[in-house]
Amino acid sequence: MHKTFYKFIFLSLLFSPYSLISQENGNSYTAFGTIPERAPDSLYQQLDNAITFTDRTFLIETIAQVHIQLGNTDSIIYYGNYLKDEVLKNTPEKITNTLLLSKSYEILGIGSFQKGLYDEAMKYYLQGISITPKAKNALLHYKHKLGLALAYIEKGEYDKSISILDECLNQSNDKQIRAFANKYYGDVYLYGNDLEASKMFYKKALKDFNYLKLDKPILKVQINLGTIALMEKNYDKALNFLGKAKNLALEKQFYDLYIASILRIGKVYSITKQYEAAQIVLSTAYVNAVQWNQLESQKVIANNLIDVYVSLEDYKNAYSLMTQYQSISNMITQDQNTKEVKELEIKYQTVQKENEILSLQEEQLLKESEIKRQKTIKNAFLIGFLILLVPIVALLYVYYQKLQAQSQLNTKQEEINRQKVSSLIKGQELKLVKASIEAQDDERSRIARELHDSIGGNLAAIKLQMNNLSDTTEIKGSIVNQIDETYKQVREISHNLIPSKFSQNAFTTLIGEYIDKLDKASDQNITFIPHPESKINALNENLQVEIFNILQELITNTLKHAKAKNIEIHVNVHNNMVQMLFEDNGIGYDTEKTPNGIGLQNIKSRLETLNAQINIDSVLNRGTVVNIEIPINYDS
After folding, report:
1. What is the dihedral sign for C-alpha 374, 378, 380, 383?
2. What is the DSSP string of 310-368?
3. Residue 462: CA atoms inside 13 Å, Cβ hemisphere, count?
4. CA distance 571 to 630
5. H or E stretch including 526?
6. How far apart are the C-alpha atoms of 19 and 431, rounded to whole Å?
7. Which secondary-structure segment (H or E) carries 242?
8. Which has more pLDDT, 596 or 249?
């Protein structure tokens, strides 16, 4: 009855044109069938009636800022493009055009980032930086750089982000820019699990945000503080932070932050095994994420809902959401122009290097000018001294160059040695795991040989005595004794014999034990999610062996090449089909340019014999997703 009720609520939230409220633990959660709009009608009327370029661009930018506050993703992108098109088709004063175009890129960057299209957001921020140098408009220049830093954080490229944040803190005197830089530093350390450092930077950011009276950034920090409490397993504190943030976000009409807060509340309920409450909250968050077209949020919420449905043994919905999860991932990849972003990033890095060179050249010119001035004043005195000094300086310079070269060589050698040691350690750990499994197989073989030799010897002796059998009672008694002894040996040896790993053990347990060994022996976090376990364990033994070998190949390839921190494996049986979803957050690769290795060839060879299908989706620096579907033949 409960499950039917929740499904009814979920379907109602999806298709209702009105706002619905769901109650859980005394709290309310709102799912919007339509997007609330707070922009006054007068603004749209003024825009329709506006004639001059100045009036139109001012109104477009004003409406866009309203939607940024509301978190209306599609509306932000729409008015960002509207402003850009308006600027490009009109040509008033050049400086005004450039600044307005830069503002349109900022709006488009915000909308793309909120949608989860981080590469697309990077494209707009890089374009904004290129047309808005610091000398022309420092505030807008650093806003673009902060947006670029935030995109790098979400992509996991923390070093690039930190470099930009250092520049913002060291070179900008604007309090707002410095506040956001501290907030993003807190995000970097939060994602890196350095929670104390993260809280320190959030505290600095909050001080400035409160001074500037910026409600939305304050609320973002509070949500992240709730996330830290969740990571510290202080669930009451986390719910307190997130509950207040949820209510304030709804009151202020910050709908994107409302989604973020209830997503984390659902995560708390899921971790504390309040699965039915988690289902309601996460379903509400999912509906809102779909309504606001936030693709990355949809992906995260779907992943959390899969875990909840598995815990509730609702495998049908878990399978449906897993399919939706993959569809959203593909949509995010397709909506982004990675090649164009890469070209813009290279241009940006080139400009940065050119600026550094110019700065060094200016510094060098100043030094040379100072040297010339001093030479002019003291020329007569220094001529004689320089005749002696020049050879000494030359020798010192040569010696200094040698020291520098040796220092660089030592640094490179140390890095090479560290990489070699890391590679050897990882290889040795994999060998130890395999050796442990092989040792178990050797022990079973030894016991089998012992069974064969001891029983075989006894039976041979019995046969010889039977050939010489007469009616002598003494011989018959001897034979009976040997038969009893043989029977006891069979029982003792069979009791000591280790069961066959596929015929005597649950298949999901074997995979779990294998992954636990790898998880402990490596730095990666490996998650295995089977559902339903009863159907997976009932698969034909030959098919179990093939699935186990395929998983071994996939995990080994990832540990060797992907440099992934997280690996997630789903195995599902549904409609006479085994579906395996293998996902990592590693470096990825170009599937068109990179040839298949031996491991992948072995996997494809196995799948051909099973009439199975494989789909590999990999993007550089975005990880790899492998989807395999194997038909179940119950007659085999």
Report:
1. negative
2. HHTT-HHHHHHHHHHHHHHHHHHHHT--HHHHHHHHHHHHHHHHHHHHHHHHHHHHHHH
3. 16
4. 11
5. strand 525-531
6. 57
7. helix 235-252
8. 249
